[in-house]
């Protein structure tokens, strides 16, 4: 099994992550808290209350973990294509795979990475939702979680081992089809490049950016449900499952709830995935 795709996926995931984390914090807060009037209000309040550092809350942990998940996604995707088409990454430049193969490989990568992603994503979402400023006024209560390890241990103790996988089913439904869409959009946008030639950096940036936007646009409704299920354990609000969370969210807040975070998700998805694909392609090319 070629491993360079896993390494390139890790590095490119880390680069995309740093760029996208501030957007991600605003998105998670908009999806799970009702105190903000919109993106600007959330950004202003976060900045006033927590300074610029507030946007980077919970980032050190995803760099190590979510970047590793990106490595699983790209590694499994590429190796599934190898199994389906018997062509390596280099050979696929001359012989592009069919879209159906790309879709199946993307869905496989999306499905497998969920089980690495679920606990890390849960910890990230819980930490991003802590709105206490770093320099707390004397006498104010400390944040519930002191950091990622404390968060993981607390969830394990308070909600049991299954608690660490809270929201995993919604994550599977979110990521399996949308990763197929992600890679198909990328391949579609690269079509302007002639077979056998490497796409230009501009083509890769645009193709990666659109891959991010199209997949996140489809993923947003289940992303909202996933984040709510992940926070539910903390608030002791019990949803009976994905469907129950969908129905009760829609009943209480209307259908618009499923599109919460769509604008910020798209604004974040373009630069993050443009940089992710550009660094991924560049690394694989420079390794031959
Ligand atoms: C719709 N979904 C879940 C995705 N397209 N995921 C893959 C993109 C990964 C990238 N690090 C990002 O966070 O955008």
UniProtKB/TrEMBL annotation:
Ranges for the Solcar repeats: 1-83, 97-192, 199-286
Single GO cellular component term: mitochondrial inner membrane
Topology in membrane: Multi-pass membrane protein
Protein name, as recorded: Solute carrier family 25 member 45
Entry-linked SUPFAM superfamilies: Mitochondrial carrier (SSF103506)
GO molecular function: transmembrane transporter activity
Family: Belongs to the mitochondrial carrier (TC 2.A.29) family.
Localization per record: Mitochondrion inner membrane
Matching InterPro entries: MCP, MCP_dom_sf, MCP_transmembrane, Mitochondrial_Carrier
One Pfam family named in its UniProt record: Mito_carr
First-listed, main subcellular location of the protein, grouped into a coarse class: mitochondrion
Transmembrane segments: 55-78, 98-118
Organism encoding this protein: Lynx canadensis (Canada lynx)
Top-rank taxon: Eukaryota
UniProt keyword annotations, A-Z: Membrane, Mitochondrion, Mitochondrion inner membrane, Repeat, Transmembrane, Transmembrane helix, Transport
């Amino acid at each position: 099994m070629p491993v360079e795709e896993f390494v390139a996926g890790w590095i490119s995931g880390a680069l995309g992550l740093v760029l996208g984390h501030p957007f991600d914090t605003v998105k998670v807060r908009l999806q799970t808290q009702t105190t903000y009037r919109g993106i600007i209000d959330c950004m202003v309040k976060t900045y006033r209350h927590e300074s610029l550092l507030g946007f980077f809350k919970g980032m050190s942990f995803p760099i190590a973990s979510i970047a590793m998940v990106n490595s699983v996604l790209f590694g499994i995707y590429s190796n599934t294509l190898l199994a389906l088409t018997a062509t390596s990454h280099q050979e696929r430049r001359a012989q592009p795979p069919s879209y159906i193969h790309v879709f199946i490989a993307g869905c496989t990568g999306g499905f497998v990475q969920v089980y690495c992603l679920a606990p890390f994503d849960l910890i990230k979402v819980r930490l991003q939702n802590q709105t206490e400023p770093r320099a707390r006024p004397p006498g104010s209560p400390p944040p519930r979680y002191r950091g990622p390890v404390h968060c993981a241990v607390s969830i394990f103790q308070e909600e049991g081992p299954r608690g660490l996988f809270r929201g995993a089913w919604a994550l599977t439904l979110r990521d399996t089809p949308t990763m197929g869409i992600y890679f198909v959009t990328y391949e579609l946008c690269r079509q302007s490049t002639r077979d056998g030639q490497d796409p230009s950096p501009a083509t890769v940036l645009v193709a990666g950016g659109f891959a991010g936007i199209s997949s996140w646009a489809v993923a947003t409704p289940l992303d909202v449900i996933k984040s709510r299920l992940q926070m539910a354990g903390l608030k002791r609000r019990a949803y009976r499952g994905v469907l129950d969370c969908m129905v009760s969210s829609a009943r209480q807040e209307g259908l618009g709830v499923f599109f919460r975070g769509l604008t910020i998700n798209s604004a974040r998805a373009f630069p993050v995935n443009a940089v992710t694909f550009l660094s991924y392609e560049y690394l694989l090319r420079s390794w031959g």
